[in-house]
Amino acid sequence: MAARVALVTGGASGIGRACAEAFARDGVRVALVDRDEERGEVAAKAMGATFFAADLTEASVARKVVDDVANGLGGLDVLVNVAGFQHIDPVPEFPAEVWDQMLALMVSAPFHMTQRAWPYLIGSGHGRVIHMGSAHSLVASPYKVGYVTAKHALLGHMKVVALEGGPHGVTCNTVCPAYVRTPLVEAQIQDQARTRGIAESEVEEKVLLEHAAIKRLLEPSDVAGLVRWLASEEAWAITGSVQTIDLGWTAR
Q1: Domains of the chain and any CATH numbers
Q2: 119-135, pLDDT tens digit by residue?
């Protein structure tokens, strides 16, 4: 992994930061991309990475940051699409502008970035595209129409990229975790309690771990370990796959 360049979106915190830290420990030159400049700069400095501020909901920005990373770090070998957010409301009340923003960030941005990264990934000889999906890429939950739709869409994108990238040594896979102890999940607790009519103290047991065979939240480092492996040479034959790390959720 040494001497490779990895671009991680949503790298200022949570799963994105954990992935970036795992790559940095391997000697990879890491580019963190996030719109949170303050947290992004702090995270990058802590791991010896380079930070690029970008609002990936803008297609032109998403494409430009790929060139900025490749030019600044000397290429691009691994693209990890993690950036995302959650919103909880029933379908009739789900804000249309939030729907548009979610799809722009979690579906369109990975498309634009993968498309722009294509020549760099092929030139790498061992290009890797890794999407951060979710158990919600495979199953649904109420009140999450935007998130569930976006995470399902990533699987279609992954499959096409895997088929077209395969002859060039480019792999594409989607990691699908259950609930991970991140700021995104912690911020949901109040909304989950509100929409389901339960106490906030009951959310972890009755919602987050309801379908899990292993009753324990994942940590960001658990997910990062799988991402790190998918980016390695050992995973050269793994492409077009859904890599579940969901505590048995989708085994039902």
Answers
A1: 5-180+219-236 (3.40.50.720)
A2: 999 999 999 999 999 99
